[in-house]
User: Fold this.
Amino acid sequence: MQTPLEIEFNGVEKSDALEAKIAEKFNKLSKHFSRMTSGRVVVAKPHRHSKGANPFLIKIEVGVPGQPPILISSSREENREHEDIQIALRDAFDAARRKLDDVSAKLSRGAQAKSERGRRRPAKGPALGPDASDI
Assistant:
């Protein structure tokens, strides 16, 4: 990765243990998808005035060369499990891994198609058409 990982906390108390856990998960992700150029993780706990659940919101942004940044956001729907930061992080990084697998497959298909185009060009030779001897 070309730039260091950025970790941002919104409405959540910053802790060294949480930063270390995020860095560990992101390092595993970068080993899984080696083409990353940058990374940013936002951990937020939006304020809600209702008496419903108040889940953590995890946003992961991954920079890839020649592509717009890949954005992964944990589910915004009411999810009681995401009231636990560890579960919210696990689910967000699992979603990121799946998304990066999809992007990796698309990139490799694109590269393969590009190399195939060069092989499909017809050989240069005499133009096809009526032969002069047929007249």
About this structure: Helices lie at 16-32, 85-119. The chain is about 40% helix and 15% strand.
